[in-house]
Each structure stands twice: as C-alpha cells, then as structure tokens.
Amino acid sequence: xxxxxxxxxxxxxxxxxxxxxxxxxxxxxxxxxxxxxxxxxxxxxxxxxxxxxxxxxxxxxxxxxxxxxxxxxxxxxxxxxxxxxxxxxxxxxxxxxxxxxxxxxxxxxxxxxxxxxxxxxxxxxxxxxxxxxxxxxxxxxxxxxxxxxxxxxxxxxxxxxxxxxxxxxxxxxxxxxxxxxxxxxxxxxxxxxxxxxxxxxxxxxxxxxxxxxxxxxxxxxxxxxxxxxxxxxxxxxxxxxxxxxxxxxxxxxxxxxxxxxxxxxxxxxxxxxxxxxxxxxxxxxxxxxxxxxxxxxxxxxxxxxxxxxxxxxxxxxxxxxxxxxxxxxxxxxxxxxxxxxxxxxxxxxxxxxxxxxxxxxxxxxxxxxxxxxxxxxxxxxxxxxxxxxxxxxxxxxxxxxxxxxxxxx
Length: 409
Known about the structure:
This protein is globular. By secondary structure, it is α/β, with parallel strands linked by helices. Strands 1, 2, 3, 4, 5 and 6 form a six-stranded mixed β-sheet that branches. Strands 7-8-11-9-10 form a five-stranded mixed β-sheet. Helix 7 packs antiparallel against helix 8, helix 10 crosses helix 12 and helix 12 packs across helix 13. The chain has 13 helices and eleven strands.
C-alpha cells in the first residue's frame, strides 16, 4: 500500500505611547489608574492601480531610492528579466513591464545607463535589476481568486553585493496578458529550481542593505547565458539556442531544469526527436532525484483530452521515459492531477482526478510493474499556480500533472 499525500506549498508583514502622571495627579488619585491598552489601527488597504501607473510607481520608487544628483556619475544597470513570482516564467506581461521600466529610466533618470544582461556587462560590476510580477488575492496571498498583481523590483549592487534599492506597487488585472513566452510555453516540465528560487528571494525576501542571495550571485553569469538561449528560442533561432545552452550548461557546472527544458525544446523544434527523447530522460531523472516534478501534459479546459496536438505527439515517449526510469529505480509514484479555477470546484476535483488516472493508466500500460506502485489523486484548483481562471494559454500550467516519488510499503 502506498502512503503519502502531495503537499504543494504556495509562496507567500504599534507604536503606542503613554503619558506619565505628575506627582500631584498621583496624590489626587484614590487608586492606581488602570492603563488603557492602545487601540490597534488597521493598515489601509492596498489600492491597485492601472497597470501602467503601477509600473511607473514601482520604478520611480526604485530609481529614486538610489539616484544621485551628480549629472556626471552614471551607474551601469542591467535587467535580469522579470518573472512571475510563483511560476518563475517570463510572460508578455513581464516583458511589457521591463519595456516600461526601460522607457521611464531613459526619460526621467539619465544617471542610470541601462545595458543588456550579458556576461560582458556583468563583469563590470553593475547594478542588477530583478523583479517579480505575481497574482495575489485580496489578502495579498498567492491562493484563491487573484484580484491584483503585486510588482516587486529590487536593485542589487554587484560591487558591494548588497541590495541598494526597492520599489513595489499593486496593479489591476485589467488588460494584463500573462501568456508565457514561447520557451516557457513549450517547456515539457515545470519545477522551481534553486536558481529561480534564489532570484525570487533576491526580490521578494530582501530589504535595502541586505546581502545578495549567495546562490543567485553564484549563478548570475550562467543566468546571462541561459537568457541569451531563451531569446534565441523565442525568436525561433533554435540552433543558436542550442549553442547558448551548451555554454550555459558549462557555466552552471551541472544540470538545471531550465537548461534541460531548453535543450529538449530546441531539439524537438529542429526535428531531432531522438536527441529530444534522450534529453527528456535526463529531465525525468532530474525530477525523480528531487522526488517531485510537474510534467506539462496539457489538457483542454474541463476535459481529459490533450490541448495541443503538436506537443501531444511527444507524449507517448514522455510516458515511456517516465515509466521506464521509475521502474528502474523501483520508485512508487503519486500522480496528481490539477485543474484551472474556472467552473464549480466539485467539477474541478473530478476532472483533476480523471486526468491523473488517465496518465497513471498510460504509465501502467508502458510498465506493468508500476500497477502496484502508483496511485492517482486530484486536487481540483486548490493548488493553481496562475489562478486567473481564464482557461486559455495564460493558465495552461494550472491544468498540469505532478509526479511525486513516495514511500513504498
């Protein structure tokens, strides 16, 4: 019997005064006065702004916090591309946000010289701008119905290796397109690797004066190579993307899921399916070693049918690699289905379970020995990563299947 349950954790801050009575007052008082506790005053609610206004507010706050009045002294700034604060993906929205920041800096803050995020510029010890764009509910949590987007920006000084500026704002949902960019849309697997987690921590888990996250600092050079590869992939320059991924892999000194995803996708786009299959095997090993990974079997809204025929053509060998490698490790798996937030939750629960059972059945068909070592479970939309309920390309990741290695007994 297999025991365990999937736990997916989502990410996620008075001054009182009292008067001392005079000795005359004390003498007049028949008994010691009882102190009146201060009344707690609730913080005013954060009011979301239109997207462009919110970006301007966060960026102005960021640049004003480190700006100088010296017209001669210019600071080199590079932007490590902004990401979703939960999924780690770059989207049309994060790219638009970057463009607005760049335009504002050039128009209003000429003391900052913003240059491309490259290895050469990183060698000059610039300020590195990082940022997250995160859907949150009314309480500012990344759960339930998202009601606004939280913008977080930070400037990290590569010379002092510390955080020197911050800027935040809240944006309305209206008119914001969070569709992932092509590399992220096409990636076969999802998990927050340590590089992405350290990026998020550098922005969301820091305050001015803090030291830069050590892991982010150690991988920022390889991150520039990865980003160059992502730009090639997004522009459909797949062979150039493979060359950049090779450089990034050497710089990272080991496997990173974001690199493996890119090498897989570029090979697949070039029709090099055997090479893609071999790389997918490494992706599966990456997940099994870490005991959890989401594979993006993408489903149509409200259905167990696959949504993308081009990607679905690869699913048979995805299943085969998952089944073969889990069998070789004698691993027990919990297969967990997910659903996007549209529709009644009771229906979402049922659909998510059916999705998990669909994939489990295919695994067991590919490797009959897994029949006693797999279970299926559905969690509805409770663990939605995007949570906008649009049922389009922006929340494909909410209709995913997660594999977790669990204890066998």
